Protein backbone atom coordinates (compact mmCIF):
# COMPACT_ATOMS: atom_id res chain seq x y z
CA UNK A 1 0.00 0.00 0.00
CA UNK A 2 1.39 3.38 -1.02
CA UNK A 3 1.64 6.28 1.38
CA UNK A 4 -0.30 9.49 0.60
CA UNK A 5 2.97 11.17 -0.38
CA UNK A 6 3.78 8.35 -2.79
CA UNK A 7 0.28 8.51 -4.25
CA UNK A 8 0.68 12.24 -4.79
CA UNK A 9 3.78 11.64 -6.87
CA UNK A 10 2.07 9.06 -9.10
CA UNK A 11 1.73 9.68 -12.80
CA UNK A 12 -1.58 8.48 -14.24
CA UNK A 13 -1.57 6.77 -17.62
CA UNK A 14 -4.82 7.52 -19.37
CA UNK A 15 -6.47 7.09 -22.73
CA UNK A 16 -8.63 10.00 -23.88
CA UNK A 17 -11.44 9.11 -26.25
CA UNK A 18 -12.31 12.21 -28.25
CA UNK A 19 -15.83 12.02 -29.61
CA UNK A 20 -17.55 14.66 -31.72
CA UNK A 21 -18.63 16.89 -28.84
CA UNK A 22 -17.17 15.25 -25.76
CA UNK A 23 -14.03 13.58 -24.53
CA UNK A 24 -14.06 10.66 -22.15
CA UNK A 25 -11.12 9.17 -20.30
CA UNK A 26 -10.20 5.57 -19.56
CA UNK A 27 -7.54 4.25 -17.21
CA UNK A 28 -4.86 2.98 -19.59
CA UNK A 29 -4.18 -0.05 -17.41
CA UNK A 30 -7.44 -1.51 -18.78
CA UNK A 31 -6.58 -0.80 -22.42
CA UNK A 32 -4.81 -3.61 -24.24
CA UNK A 33 -4.81 -2.15 -27.73
CA UNK A 34 -6.47 -0.07 -30.38
CA UNK A 35 -7.08 -0.47 -34.09
CA UNK A 36 -8.36 1.95 -36.68
CA UNK A 37 -10.84 0.37 -39.06
CA UNK A 38 -11.48 1.55 -42.60
CA UNK A 39 -15.17 0.77 -42.63
CA UNK A 40 -17.93 -0.53 -40.41
CA UNK A 41 -17.96 -3.85 -42.27
CA UNK A 42 -14.47 -4.49 -40.88
CA UNK A 43 -15.85 -4.60 -37.34
CA UNK A 44 -15.67 -8.03 -35.73
CA UNK A 45 -19.07 -9.40 -34.81
CA UNK A 46 -17.95 -9.56 -31.18
CA UNK A 47 -17.30 -5.82 -30.92
CA UNK A 48 -19.60 -3.90 -28.58
CA UNK A 49 -20.77 -0.60 -30.12
CA UNK A 50 -19.93 2.19 -27.68
CA UNK A 51 -23.04 4.06 -28.74
CA UNK A 52 -25.03 1.33 -26.99
CA UNK A 53 -23.27 2.08 -23.69
CA UNK A 54 -22.60 5.82 -23.74
CA UNK A 55 -25.60 8.09 -23.19
CA UNK A 56 -24.16 10.90 -25.25
CA UNK A 57 -26.26 11.09 -28.37
CA UNK A 58 -25.17 11.22 -31.96
CA UNK A 59 -21.53 10.60 -32.79
CA UNK A 60 -19.67 11.63 -35.91
CA UNK A 61 -18.99 8.91 -38.48
CA UNK A 62 -15.29 9.61 -38.86
CA UNK A 63 -12.45 7.35 -37.75
CA UNK A 64 -13.89 4.08 -36.61
CA UNK A 65 -11.81 2.67 -33.75
CA UNK A 66 -11.75 -0.62 -32.01
CA UNK A 67 -10.46 -0.64 -28.45
CA UNK A 68 -9.43 -3.90 -26.84
CA UNK A 69 -10.11 -3.70 -23.13
CA UNK A 70 -9.01 -6.03 -20.38
CA UNK A 71 -11.42 -7.66 -17.96
CA UNK A 72 -10.67 -8.11 -14.25
CA UNK A 73 -10.61 -11.88 -14.89
CA UNK A 74 -7.75 -11.59 -17.36
CA UNK A 75 -9.82 -11.79 -20.51
CA UNK A 76 -10.64 -9.10 -23.01
CA UNK A 77 -13.47 -7.49 -24.92
CA UNK A 78 -13.71 -5.00 -27.71
CA UNK A 79 -15.42 -1.65 -27.84
CA UNK A 80 -16.07 0.10 -31.16
CA UNK A 81 -16.58 3.86 -31.48
CA UNK A 82 -16.15 6.76 -33.89
CA UNK A 83 -13.58 9.26 -32.70
CA UNK A 84 -9.95 9.92 -31.92
CA UNK A 85 -7.70 8.48 -29.24
CA UNK A 86 -4.97 10.10 -27.25
CA UNK A 87 -2.61 8.57 -24.72
CA UNK A 88 -1.67 10.95 -21.91
CA UNK A 89 0.15 10.94 -18.59
CA UNK A 90 -1.01 13.28 -15.88
CA UNK A 91 0.09 13.96 -12.31
CA UNK A 92 -2.11 12.54 -9.55
CA UNK A 93 -3.38 15.98 -8.58
CA UNK A 94 -5.26 16.15 -11.89
CA UNK A 95 -7.53 13.33 -10.71
CA UNK A 96 -10.61 14.57 -8.84
CA UNK A 97 -13.27 12.50 -7.09
CA UNK A 98 -16.75 12.98 -8.44
CA UNK A 99 -18.56 15.53 -6.21
CA UNK A 100 -20.59 13.61 -3.63
CA UNK A 101 -23.89 14.81 -5.03
CA UNK A 102 -23.01 13.54 -8.50
CA UNK A 103 -21.87 10.24 -7.06
CA UNK A 104 -25.31 9.90 -5.47
CA UNK A 105 -27.30 11.03 -8.48
CA UNK A 106 -25.41 9.61 -11.44
CA UNK A 107 -27.51 7.64 -13.88
CA UNK A 108 -24.53 6.20 -15.72
CA UNK A 109 -22.75 3.89 -13.28
CA UNK A 110 -19.51 3.92 -15.29
CA UNK A 111 -18.88 7.58 -14.44
CA UNK A 112 -16.10 7.27 -11.90
CA UNK A 113 -14.14 10.51 -11.45
CA UNK A 114 -13.03 13.72 -13.12
CA UNK A 115 -9.74 14.52 -14.79
CA UNK A 116 -8.28 17.99 -15.37
CA UNK A 117 -6.78 18.00 -18.82
CA UNK A 118 -5.81 20.99 -20.94
CA UNK A 119 -7.98 23.35 -18.93
CA UNK A 120 -11.02 21.06 -19.17
CA UNK A 121 -12.67 18.69 -16.76
CA UNK A 122 -13.27 15.32 -18.38
CA UNK A 123 -15.08 12.24 -17.16
CA UNK A 124 -13.07 9.17 -16.23
CA UNK A 125 -15.03 6.00 -16.94
CA UNK A 126 -14.66 2.77 -15.01
CA UNK A 127 -13.86 0.08 -17.55
CA UNK A 128 -15.06 -2.94 -15.49
CA UNK A 129 -18.39 -1.15 -14.97
CA UNK A 130 -18.61 -0.50 -18.72
CA UNK A 131 -18.05 -4.20 -19.29
CA UNK A 132 -20.79 -5.01 -16.80
CA UNK A 133 -23.06 -2.58 -18.58
CA UNK A 134 -22.31 -4.29 -21.90
CA UNK A 135 -23.18 -7.66 -20.39
CA UNK A 136 -26.43 -6.32 -18.96
CA UNK A 137 -27.25 -4.85 -22.37
CA UNK A 138 -27.02 -8.34 -23.84
CA UNK A 139 -23.51 -8.21 -25.29
CA UNK A 140 -22.37 -11.54 -23.92
CA UNK A 141 -19.18 -11.25 -25.98
CA UNK A 142 -18.00 -8.67 -23.42
CA UNK A 143 -17.31 -11.64 -21.17
CA UNK A 144 -14.53 -13.23 -23.19
CA UNK A 145 -12.38 -15.49 -21.07
CA UNK A 146 -9.68 -15.69 -23.69
CA UNK A 147 -6.31 -14.56 -22.45
CA UNK A 148 -4.78 -11.57 -24.14
CA UNK A 149 -2.05 -12.38 -26.61
CA UNK B 1 -19.01 75.45 42.97
CA UNK B 2 -21.62 74.64 40.43
CA UNK B 3 -20.74 72.69 37.32
CA UNK B 4 -20.01 74.51 34.13
CA UNK B 5 -22.62 74.35 31.39
CA UNK B 6 -20.25 72.07 29.46
CA UNK B 7 -20.08 69.62 32.33
CA UNK B 8 -23.81 69.71 32.78
CA UNK B 9 -24.37 69.16 29.12
CA UNK B 10 -21.95 66.23 29.10
CA UNK B 11 -23.64 64.71 32.13
CA UNK B 12 -26.97 65.09 30.45
CA UNK B 13 -25.73 63.40 27.32
CA UNK B 14 -24.17 60.53 29.28
CA UNK B 15 -27.42 60.05 31.10
CA UNK B 16 -29.33 60.05 27.86
CA UNK B 17 -26.91 57.54 26.38
CA UNK B 18 -27.44 55.26 29.35
CA UNK B 19 -31.15 55.45 28.84
CA UNK B 20 -30.89 54.21 25.27
CA UNK B 21 -32.58 50.88 25.22
CA UNK B 22 -30.71 48.18 23.36
CA UNK B 23 -33.09 47.49 20.51
CA UNK B 24 -30.76 45.11 18.67
CA UNK B 25 -32.53 41.90 17.96
CA UNK B 26 -31.23 38.74 16.41
CA UNK B 27 -30.63 39.22 12.74
CA UNK B 28 -30.23 36.99 9.76
CA UNK B 29 -28.20 37.39 6.58
CA UNK B 30 -30.05 36.39 3.45
CA UNK B 31 -29.07 35.84 -0.16
CA UNK B 32 -32.12 36.77 -2.23
CA UNK B 33 -32.46 35.50 -5.78
CA UNK B 34 -34.97 34.90 -8.54
CA UNK B 35 -35.97 31.68 -10.22
CA UNK B 36 -38.20 32.76 -13.06
CA UNK B 37 -40.85 35.11 -11.68
CA UNK B 38 -40.51 33.90 -8.10
CA UNK B 39 -38.20 35.25 -5.45
CA UNK B 40 -36.36 32.99 -3.04
CA UNK B 41 -33.66 33.30 -0.39
CA UNK B 42 -31.12 31.17 1.38
CA UNK B 43 -29.56 31.99 4.71
CA UNK B 44 -26.20 33.60 4.02
CA UNK B 45 -24.35 31.30 6.38
CA UNK B 46 -24.96 28.41 3.96
CA UNK B 47 -23.71 30.28 0.89
CA UNK B 48 -19.92 30.24 0.72
CA UNK B 49 -19.56 32.31 -2.38
CA UNK B 50 -21.54 33.88 -5.19
CA UNK B 51 -20.03 33.34 -8.62
CA UNK B 52 -20.98 35.49 -11.60
CA UNK B 53 -21.98 32.48 -13.66
CA UNK B 54 -19.48 33.11 -16.43
CA UNK B 55 -17.27 30.26 -15.19
CA UNK B 56 -16.61 27.51 -17.70
CA UNK B 57 -19.11 24.75 -17.09
CA UNK B 58 -18.10 21.22 -18.05
CA UNK B 59 -20.82 18.82 -19.06
CA UNK B 60 -20.82 15.44 -17.34
CA UNK B 61 -22.78 12.74 -19.15
CA UNK B 62 -24.90 10.27 -17.24
CA UNK B 63 -26.42 12.75 -14.80
CA UNK B 64 -30.01 13.91 -14.34
CA UNK B 65 -31.01 16.97 -16.35
CA UNK B 66 -31.01 19.09 -13.20
CA UNK B 67 -27.23 18.67 -12.89
CA UNK B 68 -25.76 21.11 -15.36
CA UNK B 69 -22.17 19.98 -14.96
CA UNK B 70 -19.10 20.87 -12.96
CA UNK B 71 -17.02 23.99 -12.47
CA UNK B 72 -13.50 24.43 -11.21
CA UNK B 73 -13.39 27.09 -8.51
CA UNK B 74 -9.71 27.68 -7.80
CA UNK B 75 -9.03 23.95 -7.83
CA UNK B 76 -12.20 23.02 -5.97
CA UNK B 77 -14.50 20.98 -8.21
CA UNK B 78 -18.18 21.69 -7.63
CA UNK B 79 -21.30 20.41 -9.28
CA UNK B 80 -23.83 22.93 -10.56
CA UNK B 81 -27.50 22.11 -10.12
CA UNK B 82 -30.86 23.62 -11.01
CA UNK B 83 -33.64 23.70 -8.43
CA UNK B 84 -36.57 24.33 -10.75
CA UNK B 85 -37.51 20.67 -11.03
CA UNK B 86 -37.30 20.03 -7.29
CA UNK B 87 -39.43 23.10 -6.59
CA UNK B 88 -41.72 22.27 -9.51
CA UNK B 89 -41.10 25.59 -11.19
CA UNK B 90 -41.06 26.25 -14.89
CA UNK B 91 -37.62 25.75 -16.42
CA UNK B 92 -35.81 28.98 -17.13
CA UNK B 93 -35.42 29.98 -20.77
CA UNK B 94 -31.71 30.59 -20.46
CA UNK B 95 -30.25 28.64 -17.59
CA UNK B 96 -26.61 28.81 -18.64
CA UNK B 97 -25.90 32.42 -17.73
CA UNK B 98 -27.26 33.16 -14.27
CA UNK B 99 -25.11 33.53 -11.16
CA UNK B 100 -24.06 30.45 -9.21
CA UNK B 101 -24.52 30.28 -5.44
CA UNK B 102 -21.99 27.95 -3.86
CA UNK B 103 -24.00 26.28 -1.13
CA UNK B 104 -22.73 24.13 1.71
CA UNK B 105 -25.16 22.25 3.94
CA UNK B 106 -26.07 18.72 5.04
CA UNK B 107 -22.59 17.55 4.14
CA UNK B 108 -23.20 18.59 0.56
CA UNK B 109 -21.34 21.21 -1.42
CA UNK B 110 -22.71 22.35 -4.74
CA UNK B 111 -23.29 25.30 -6.97
CA UNK B 112 -26.89 26.36 -7.51
CA UNK B 113 -27.64 28.20 -10.74
CA UNK B 114 -30.19 30.96 -10.24
CA UNK B 115 -31.71 33.33 -12.77
CA UNK B 116 -30.81 36.53 -10.97
CA UNK B 117 -29.14 37.59 -7.76
CA UNK B 118 -31.35 40.25 -6.17
CA UNK B 119 -29.62 41.16 -2.92
CA UNK B 120 -27.53 40.06 0.00
CA UNK B 121 -28.99 41.67 3.09
CA UNK B 122 -29.22 41.60 6.87
CA UNK B 123 -32.69 41.52 8.34
CA UNK B 124 -34.05 41.29 11.88
CA UNK B 125 -35.53 37.88 12.59
CA UNK B 126 -38.87 39.57 13.16
CA UNK B 127 -39.03 40.28 9.41
CA UNK B 128 -39.54 36.59 8.78
CA UNK B 129 -43.19 35.61 8.58
CA UNK B 130 -44.73 32.18 8.94
CA UNK B 131 -45.53 30.21 5.81
CA UNK B 132 -49.15 30.76 4.78
CA UNK B 133 -51.48 27.91 3.85
CA UNK B 134 -51.87 29.43 0.41
CA UNK B 135 -48.31 28.53 -0.55
CA UNK B 136 -48.20 25.94 -3.36
CA UNK B 137 -47.94 22.40 -2.01
CA UNK B 138 -44.79 21.79 -4.05
CA UNK B 139 -42.99 24.56 -2.16
CA UNK B 140 -44.27 23.89 1.35
CA UNK B 141 -41.65 21.26 2.30
CA UNK B 142 -38.84 23.64 1.43
CA UNK B 143 -40.03 27.06 2.56
CA UNK B 144 -39.09 27.97 6.13
CA UNK B 145 -40.50 31.49 6.17
CA UNK B 146 -41.62 34.39 4.01
CA UNK B 147 -40.34 37.92 3.90
CA UNK B 148 -41.03 41.03 1.93
CA UNK B 149 -38.55 42.34 -0.62
CA UNK B 150 -39.48 45.52 -2.46
CA UNK B 151 -43.15 44.68 -2.11
CA UNK B 152 -42.77 41.15 -3.36
CA UNK B 153 -42.93 37.96 -1.31
CA UNK B 154 -39.67 36.05 -0.92
CA UNK B 155 -39.68 32.42 0.15
CA UNK B 156 -36.82 31.60 2.49
CA UNK B 157 -35.73 28.10 1.52
CA UNK B 158 -34.54 25.51 4.00
CA UNK B 159 -31.33 24.63 2.18
CA UNK B 160 -30.73 21.54 4.30
CA UNK B 161 -34.10 20.09 3.32
CA UNK B 162 -33.48 21.09 -0.31
CA UNK B 163 -30.12 19.34 -0.35
CA UNK B 164 -31.35 16.27 1.50
CA UNK B 165 -34.22 15.74 -0.91
CA UNK B 166 -32.02 16.45 -3.89
CA UNK B 167 -29.55 13.83 -2.75
CA UNK B 168 -32.41 11.38 -2.29
CA UNK B 169 -33.23 11.73 -5.96
CA UNK B 170 -35.95 14.36 -6.03
CA UNK B 171 -35.61 17.04 -8.65
TrEMBL record, chain A:
Source taxon at top rank: Bacteria
Name of the protein: CheW-like domain-containing protein
Organism encoding this protein: Marinospirillum celere
UniProtKB/TrEMBL annotation, chain B:
PROSITE patterns to which the protein is assigned, alphabetical: CHEW (PS50851)
One GO CC term on file: cytosol
Pfam families (UniProt xref): CheW
InterPro entries, A to Z: CheW (IPR039315), CheW-like_dom_sf (IPR036061), CheW-lke_dom (IPR002545)
Domain CheW-like: 27-168
GO BP: chemotaxis; signal transduction
Protein name: Purine-binding chemotaxis protein CheW
Organism the protein comes from: Marinospirillum celere
